[in-house]
Amino acid sequence: LPALAALLPPLPGLGGPGPAEVGLGALPAELRAAVRTLVGDLDALFSALGLREESFAVGALSRIVAAELAGYAPARNRRRTATNKASVVFVDRTLDLAGAVGHHGDNLAEKILSVLPKLPGHKTDVMVNMVELTALQTTDETYSIIAPGCLAQPNDPAAKALWESFMNLKQKEAVMEARRHLVEAASRENLPIKMSMGRVTPEQLSSYIKLFRNNLKALENHCGLLQLVLATVQTLKHPQTSKWDNFLAFERLLLQTIGESEMPSVLNQLLPMIKSYNERTKDDYTCEDFLVLLVYIYSVVGEIESGKELDAAEEEVKKALVKAICDEPEPSPLLQKIT
């Protein structure tokens, strides 16, 4: 439901409802309106599917949504006449922040969705640069002339099968699947493809894609597949992808450290890595990267005992982060929103 992508449960504590306040009336007006919109949207979706749902909820806001849906008059009428049964589980997004900010998946789909720019107006699809399929020279001026490709290819069976393997296979196997699909498509179109064994590289996939470039019929027949393979090439070449592996290694190290020592020593380990714009190399973490890491640390550590040592360590991290954010020559939209 992209229209409601910004709907987040209020965090407990400052200004958020406590565990005792679980009625819709306890929420701020804006959140109440969003919950009612969500309930209306879900009811419309379930009507279209002819569903009679049984709702389950995990988390305070989920309980409110489930209760509102149960008592919503149009939904009650629908449940009387609907023929298909379904179980619906609502889960508060804030209960799994570690899952949302972690880099644990060896999964190509997750990486593509993380590193490529979002398709305008969409929350779950990305822009795939299609310039490689044209005779244009890739300069920045020509970039926006060609309409972007995307991941949703409902009319292309090969592309749908490939996307399934991006989600379900390990990255290495998924990239091999991309090569296999390309080779099969090229063979069907009688394109002069040289099959090679061994490791699949982005350059190899690019060279296969270029074979389709001057053959309009082949381009048209396999356009969906080519968009998915281009997304793979662009993701594998993206600087953020090598950083992903650094994140994963660091998160594993943090989990070990948290198991063995207290939170202050973990924060003190983090401190020297917070560098201002002028001190950073391309391998260093940016301000946003640190915010993501901090969300991860505080989510996996659970309850923390406060004390002087923790306060001092947190204060140092705050100072370093504020300095780094203030030194950014061009703050990203996220940093601008935060400041």
From TrEMBL:
Top-level taxonomy: Eukaryota, Metazoa, Chordata, Craniata, Vertebrata
Organism: Manacus vitellinus (golden-collared manakin)
Protein name: Sec1 family domain-containing protein 2
GO biological process, alphabetically ordered: vesicle-mediated transport
